[in-house]
Design brief:
This protein is mainly α. It contains 10 helices and no strands. α6 (139-151) packs antiparallel against α7. It is globular and about 65 Å long. It starts with a helix and ends with a helix.
Length: 308
């Protein structure tokens, strides 16, 4: 039987393609989770069905392709399906490929990345729709990150060859990331709320950062905060411009509300979901940015702690 390295050498396209197909299937399942979990419905039963109540046949439920073949409409009644369904499937598929390509020779770490990006995608779209992040995607994600760190030491760069030693070191880094990452963000939030006299970030976002740091180490908290804020500022600028031009209350795909839950003009006093921005920054850190952020954080720590 061929090993993964032999398959990759003989057919370099096969494993990325398999990652894409598998990711698209997971994306289809995430669509179910995004709709049913906030509604407190089972994600197992019943099977996929149209809004008219009729079950969706398996050949009409193929990720991405079925939506294209049916031109975005149900076969049974002609109702339109949102383009968001294939978009989430495509996004998840591309993220799965990115995880596989970003960690060549480390299939265990790539699979851990699949778990991380899947839960970030689901949590982000639920936050967009309902401005909440269910705890399964924050506390649950953090616990899964710790367990995976013990099981897959390469997740935190442990490669000594002694599994038990590497497992303990990796697991401890995950626990440290979970505690320090969420603690750092919590103190930042408390300070900002004291200065601004208003809510700066929800506790769900704080727990989300801690969960991401279980996969990335505590250094990921800096990227999640700074990167999430930068992404938020870009969105804010685009959303303000779009609202000025169109007059719409909901902008850039995000649910924008006043504290009373009503649609609002874009402004610093309205509530917007920050979870998707944190998720984007966290995923970027896990995939690529850790190579530079970890070095910068280590250099800054050396300067502050050891400068004469």
């Amino acid at each position: 039987m061929m090993t993964l390295d032999q398959i990759a050498a003989a057919f370099p396209w096969f494993l990325p393609l398999a990652s894409f197909v598998f990711g698209a299937c997971i994306g289809s399942f995430l669509n179910v989770c995004i709709y049913r979990i906030p509604a407190e419905k089972s994600i197992v039963t019943p099977g996929s069905h149209c809004a008219c109540g009729k079950p969706v046949a398996w050949h009409d439920n193929i990720p991405i392709l079925s939506w294209l073949i049916l031109r975005g409409r149900a076969r049974c009644c002609g109702r339109p399906f949102s383009i968001r369904y294939p978009a989430i499937e495509l996004l998840t598929a591309l993220l799965f490929v990115a995880c596989w390509v970003a960690f060549p020779g480390e299939p265990g770490k790539a699979v851990c990345g699949w778990v991380l990006v899947s839960m970030l995608v689901a949590g982000s779209f639920i936050d967009l729709d309902h401005m909440i992040i269910p705890e399964v995607f924050t506390i649950g994600l953090g616990l899964v990150g710790v367990l995976l760190s013990f099981a897959v030491p390469s997740l935190h760069g442990q490669h000594s060859g002694l599994f038990l030693v590497d497992s303990m070191r990796s697991g401890l880094q995950a626990i440290l990331g979970l505690i320090v990452g969420s603690g750092f963000i919590l103190w930042f939030v408390l300070i900002m709320e004291a200065l601004l006299k208003k809510e700066a970030m929800g506790l769900g976002d704080v727990k989300l950062v801690g969960a991401i740091c279980a996969f990335t180490g505590w250094q990921g908290a800096f990227t999640a905060l700074a990167g999430g804020s930068a992404i938020g500022l870009v969105w804010f600028a685009v959303a303000m411009l779009r609202q000025k031009l169109t007059g719409e209350k909901s902008n850039a795909g995000l649910k924008v509300e006043t504290p009373e839950g009503q649609p609002a003009d874009i402004g610093f006093s309205v509530h917007v979901p920050f979870g998707p921005m944190i998720s984007i920054a966290g995923a970027l850190h896990f995939l690529w940015l850790h190579r530079w952020v970890d070095v910068l954080v280590e250099q800054a720590r050396y300067v502050f702690l050891f400068q004469p």
